[in-house]
Structure formats: structure tokens, C-alpha cells
LacI family DNA-binding transcriptional regulator (Klenkia terrae), 696 residues
Amino acid sequence: MRDAGGIGRPGPVRRPRAVDVAARAGVSVATVSFVVNGKAEGRVSPATRLRVLDAIAALGYVTDASARALATGRRRQVALLAHDMTNPFTAQVAAGAATGIAEATDGTGHLLLLLAAGLDEPDVEPVGAATVDGVLINYPGTLPAGRPDLPVVHLDDPAAGGHQVSLDVAVGARELARHLADLGHRHVVHLDSNRPWSTFAERRAAFADEFARLVPGAVVTDDRCDIDLAAARDHAAQRAEGWRRSGATAVVAATDVQALGVLAGLHGAGVAVPGQLSVAGFDDIPFAEVSAPPLTTVALPARELGHRGAVLLAQVIEDPAAPPGEPVVLPAHLVVRGSTGPATDLIR
Amino acid sequence: MRDAGGIGRPGPVRRPRAVDVAARAGVSVATVSFVVNGKAEGRVSPATRLRVLDAIAALGYVTDASARALATGRRRQVALLAHDMTNPFTAQVAAGAATGIAEATDGTGHLLLLLAAGLDEPDVEPVGAATVDGVLINYPGTLPAGRPDLPVVHLDDPAAGGHQVSLDVAVGARELARHLADLGHRHVVHLDSNRPWSTFAERRAAFADEFARLVPGAVVTDDRCDIDLAAARDHAAQRAEGWRRSGATAVVAATDVQALGVLAGLHGAGVAVPGQLSVAGFDDIPFAEVSAPPLTTVALPARELGHRGAVLLAQVIEDPAAPPGEPVVLPAHLVVRGSTGPATDLIR
DNA sequence: CTGTTAGCGCCTTCAA
DNA sequence: TTGAAGGCGCTAACAG
């Protein structure tokens, strides 16, 4: 069973255990545990504590995570359930979550990423196996049943109940609608994603509502494609002609990845942006700033979304009984760049 | 200590344990263990096995990962140590590693990401705490001492010893040198990263060597900046004038993120690409294809790097004693797009 | 083919 | 202030 240390003599690279530290410091394992876990206060004399600390340093002792987890019931790990971490937005959420969880747990907590490339099912086994103390969900509808008590925080999923931190996408969408209305646009194509997530429904609804309110006879044509650069590029290249022919003068994509793909597709199709067609997106990923033309987009605080989510999750883990409370809502705002301009006259 | 189930009566949401399954199926825990771990063959009768399986399904039993880890010494988790997962290259490596580890372990293995934003130290505590069975390193020089026996696979770090999977960046760099030489360039600025990693040194050396070999009187000016979109953009905007004045007609960046930043910076400075300055990078991240102009770059198989690395790591974990063997080297090749063109005449 | 049992390493209550 | 000891849930010898 044991696979290190051989039988009898001290193997070559056996990690030291609490007993070893105790022996070297001349104390019991309980004392070591107290010192290690910062519970020495009032239980262990300063002198003893120092001896233990010395022994730990000398031996290079590090508490075994599995053993501790088994004993305490705490794994000190949380998962981030996300779709496609290759998407810069997701990557930033992850980065924010990583710093957030570290901060909220004094560096003792860690992030386990559960990804799902493309349309595959995410691998949620760790959740069931209690590998994590909680999960951050940025991928609606993927939490497995069977663990109804697990601490969960939903990210940017307004339709979800429970603990959540969301984005005020509606406000941003309305700003964008006003911006396009001001530029004289009357007919815009709304390029949605293929995922039935509430955040996307909200983006579309708020935009369409405000646009219709501001522009008499406004037309919003619905279209959709995967949240993927190449997919959006090909889609746009193929539809460009039809969009213009239908009288549309702008394209609003549900995400920047799609918007950037559209930019590339239109470029390939010889459609000038914003000369012939304006383009805008949501997210404000870093690359939106360096595209040509730079992308007008509704900036969403991805990093903070992840950060706040992690901090909130840490609280929920700490006190699972506490009721959800008001959902945290992070602001969104329009960033106007070069991809949107005055509406052009129709082709004919 | 226990925090679920209260005392005595069956708590509200206590997860079922192996004993519960055993009781329900009328067998011992050992039998349950065998069935769960696929070791029933020849030990448990098919009928018994089915009863156990039924009980597992009925109870919704899932083996506790911590307990299993403690008992087996296997954590079923590996870590990916990377710098800035916000970089698309890193994100793709991670995506590849995730599928690779899942594949190599039949879905029982998982990925733990250890990130390090900016210049911070990565959080390698999980490694010391034996939270993982091995680690994939894409961040040279960050593995902590104290666990010399830990299975490790180095990614794209030719200077590292041991198990590794690398990229043939030299071949790609030489192709790029030839491409620029053919276009008539004689003086190019090499925009390196600020990190002293062997892969970057190799990119530069191979490029410079080949360029000098092909172009009589070739000049390669060294410059550097952080691997960050904004940093590269600002750097380029500021240096653009100087670069052109010095006679340089092309800029080769160590990574695509930097190259795209340069593109943005030059655009802002009113320098035409490739009209006045050609630009090229390394990686071929998805966004390189949709920039304007599309970026000429040395394509590096990020996804496969992660995938192969994970598969190799799984093998090393399986058989830690096996010697490293020939390092795996993945091919790199030049992808010519619109950001490079004929060398222009000097300004004066 | 199946049950019993001794750890895995740590935490924590209870005595001393 | 410190030590002894039970238990966390599972795996894998070892008996039967």
C-alpha cells in the first residue's frame, strides 16, 4: 500500500509528517497541529511554539491536504465552472476568481477549473466527489443534482436564484441603443449567441426595447452564431451582403469575440466599417481595443465579476445558512471606439 | 467536529458513505470498494456487483475524493503552473491540458490551475501540500524545492532537463527570417519579452542567426517589453518614430500579444503596416487572424502542447522511475498574412 | 467469492 | 500547557 519509504528504513524521499515534527520538537502531534493551524494562542507556550516552528522549517514539513480535508471536512478548494476558457472574458473571470479566492482565504484556498470546450458537457465529477467546498458558476444549467447543499455562487446569470453577482448588462445595452440611435441607425442586426442564457436574453431585450423607444419604426433583425471567432467571421462573411441588402446599417453582437469575428468577416467581404456597417459588442476584452477599427462595446468588468464572486463564495462557505441577500450587481457602460459611425444611406 | 447530520438522527443532507451502500446491498464495504474501483472482476459475483451498483444509484453515492486520496496516495489531480492565463496562448495550453489529462486518466483526473498575474510569485502551495500528483510547468523557474520526487513535465522550456514537450521555435524563427529577407528587409527590430526564458532566447537566436546568414550587412536591433497588449501598444507608439529613423523596416515580436499591441501602437502613431513597417510575431493566437492587417506569425501548437504534456505527465505519474527519454518536439511553421510586406525605402 | 481490519495523516475533544 | 486517543471515509491485505 505505501509506496514511499520502502519497508523499515526511512525511504529516500518520504515527506515528513506531523509525528516527525512532534518528535523533533519534543512535543505531541496535537501541539504541532495547534501551531500549524494558528490555534496556539493560549494553548501552547511561546517557547514550545518556536521549537515546533523550528522543527517544521528544518524538516520542510507541509500539512498533507488530503488528510486535513478528511479530518476537517474542508477541502480548501473551489471550482469555477465555465464555458470555454479560451474566451478572454472567461479567462479574466478566472483570473479575478483566483485572486479573490486567495484573498478571501488568506492564500489557503485554491481554484480548480472545470472547463468545457465547445459544446461538450463540463466535467463536474469533482463537485460530486466533494473535491471542492463550493463552486462558482459561469455556465448556466450545468450544476449536477445530488449536492443540493453545496455552496454556489452564480456569475452573470440573473435568472438564477440564490447567491449571485451579476452585471448590469441592461444599462449598457440601453446606452448602446442610444448611441446607435443618435448616429441615425434605424435597422440593426442583433447577432446573438446560440446559448439560452439569461444574460444574453437580457442584453437583447434591453437593447431592442430602448432602440424601439428611441427610434420610430426601428427594426431589429435577429441572427445568431456560436461564440467563436472563426464561426462569427464565417457567418458575417456569408451574411454581409444580405444584411446590407435588408437595409441594416449596424450589427450588435452579444459578445466581443463574435463582434471581432464579424469585423474580420466584413473586412474579408469588402464591407467598410463603420463606413458601410457599424459594429458593436459586449465585454470589452483587451483585444477589442486593438482591432481595426477599435471596437465600440459595452464594457463588462470580468475580472471583478470573478473576484467578487470568489469573495462571496468564501462567505457562503463560511456561513452556508445565511440567506442570499441582495444580489451584487456590477456596472456596465458603453465604450465608444471606431467601429460605430453614422448610419449610411441604404444601398439602393 | 462533524458538521452535518447532527447527533443521532440522519441529518438533512449527509452524503451517503460506502458503509451505507454496503448495508443497502447487503455486502461489506470491501465489496463496495472493489465494485467502485473496477476491481470486481473475479472477486465479486456479477449478481452481487449489480446489487451494489443498484444501491449506489439509489443512494447517489460518490466516493469521497479526500478519503480515497489519503488511502491511495493518489490525488487524481495535476496542476498547470502558468504565467497569466489571460494570454490566449496560455489559455489554449490549459484547454489542451484539460482534455489531455481527462483522456489519459479516463476522466478521473482533474486540472488545478496555478496562476501568477504580472510579476507575482505563483501560488505553489498546493504542490507542497501534495494536492497534486504531478505538475505541468509552463513557467520556468517557479517550481518550489522540497518535492524533488514530484512528477514534472516542462512545457516549451528547452533548457529544462527531465520530461518535457517542446516546440521547434527555431525552425519557425528561421522561416520568418527567410520570409523577411525575401521581402528585402535588412534591418529589423526584435521586440523580446522581459522574461529570461529559454524559449524566447531561442526564438531570437535562431532568427538573428538565419537573418544574418541570408542578408549581407543585416542589422537586428534588440528591444523588449512586457507580454501585455497595452504595454506593447504604448511601447510601440513611443518608439515607432525611432525605429523608422534608425532604418528598421520590420518588427519581430516574441509573442503575438506583443505583436498585436505593436500593431495598435503603430496605428495610433500613424505608421502604416506593412506599408512603412512590417510586423510579425510568434504563437498564432486566434486573434492574430482577425487583426487589421492580419498578423504574419510563427504558428505554435498551443493546444497540442498542453495536450501532449498532460498525456506525458500521466505516464510519468504512472511510472515515476522511467527515464525522461527523447523530449517531444512539436513543429512550428510560419503563417504569412498581411502584416508583412516588401521593405520600404528609408525615410530619408 | 466475501467479510474483517489495519492503516492513510491530521484534527480536536477530553484528561491530566 | 500538554498528551492520549478516537474518528474522518476509503483501500487493500489478509482471513475465511
